[in-house]
């Protein structure tokens, strides 16, 4: 039995896919399958059921994978002790981030983190929070920085840690008839043609789900390009609901104006999220700590308590 075989079976269990597990393990799919087959032969048991819907652990496989995760956790602790003694962190982080976060908090976070830990590789995927949530639950990302607007079934398998609370405001063009005002009612805001940030072709973005609680709205555009989102707002084609902490970012564009919602609080939370099955490495904890330190600069309370 080899250590890498333990990592391989845990990766398959987390992703439910041989191909995704191979990608995460940086080896070919045949090599991963061979590794698992050899381990099954050595143990004399079947670890996984292979179906058209994916790969799932057998009953005995679940018990073995649980022990493998415990062993990996101990190995990571040993590695962390060694790295702390040399003050040099290495490895990779797969991070999923909401675009509003990537264009604000993450800019300084990544610069600071890389200055401190130049030997750590960071792969950051920018995407809508609901899509990122599914990637984290599937094991495609180590953890994420998300905008939480409501509860999701996937959260039962995740650890959620709030960074700060915020609320949505409406962004309109300086050419809009609403631009001279400081606030609008929610009904007025939802009557505007809206642009929503979406990744992939799903239409269940977090902002959509929150707005549906208050009635119907017209999504004129669903875009996965942040610069294009800014453009359609500035051209007075659409308005957009965004977190209030992003107001300064948009105001600096000069052609976009933030408006408060006068009669309703559209509360959201900016959170860290990771799978309960994922053992946080020292480098991931370091990255989370750096993110938290920059969140505190937004003059919101960093609660640091798990929501669930």
Automatic annotation (TrEMBL):
The keyword GTP-binding does not apply. Residues 1-58 form the HTH lysR-type domain. Gene3D superfamilies: 3.40.190.290, Winged helix-like DNA-binding domain superfamily/Winged helix DNA-binding domain. It holds the Pfam family HTH_1. Keywords: DNA-binding, Transcription, Transcription regulation. InterPro entries: HTH-type_LysR_regulators, LysR_HTH_N, LysR_subst-bd, WH-like_DNA-bd_sf, WH_DNA-bd_sf. Transmembrane segments: none annotated. One of its GO terms (molecular function) is DNA-binding transcription factor activity. GO terms for cellular component: cytosol. Belongs to the LysR transcriptional regulatory family. This is Transcriptional regulator.
């Amino acid at each position: 039995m080899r250590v890498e075989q333990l990592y391989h079976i845990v990766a398959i269990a987390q992703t439910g896919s041989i191909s995704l597990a191979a990608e995460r393990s940086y080896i070919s799919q045949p090599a991963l399958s061979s590794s698992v087959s050899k381990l099954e032969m050595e143990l004399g048991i079947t670890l996984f059921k292979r179906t058209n819907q994916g790969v799932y652990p057998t009953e005995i496989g679940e018990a073995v994978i649980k022990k493998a995760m415990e062993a990996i956790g101990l190995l990571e602790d040993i590695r962390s002790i060694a790295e702390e003694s040399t003050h040099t962190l290495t490895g990779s982080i797969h991070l999923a981030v909401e675009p509003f976060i990537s264009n604000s908090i993450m800019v300084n976070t990544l610069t600071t983190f890389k200055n401190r830990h130049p030997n750590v590789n960071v792969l950051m995927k920018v995407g809508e929070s609901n899509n990122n949530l599914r990637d984290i639950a599937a094991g495609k990302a180590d953890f994420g920085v998300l905008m939480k607007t409501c509860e999701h079934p996937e959260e039962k398998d995740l650890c959620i840690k709030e960074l700060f609370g915020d609320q949505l405001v409406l962004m309109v063009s300086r050419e809009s008839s609403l631009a001279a005002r400081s606030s609008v009612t929610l009904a007025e805001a939802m009557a505007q043609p809206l642009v929503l940030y979406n990744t992939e072709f799903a239409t269940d973005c977090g902002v959509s789900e929150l707005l549906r609680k208050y009635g119907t709205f017209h999504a004129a555009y669903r875009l996965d390009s942040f610069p294009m989102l800014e453009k359609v707002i500035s051209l007075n084609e659409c308005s957009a609901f965004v977190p209030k902490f992003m107001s300064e970012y948009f105001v600096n564009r000069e052609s976009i104006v933030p408006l408060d919602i006068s009669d309703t609080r559209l509360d959201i939370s900016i959170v860290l999220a990771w799978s309960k099955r994922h053992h946080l490495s020292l480098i991931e904890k370091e990255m989370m700590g750096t993110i938290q330190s920059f969140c505190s600069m937004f003059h919101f309370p960093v609660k640091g308590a798990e929501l669930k």
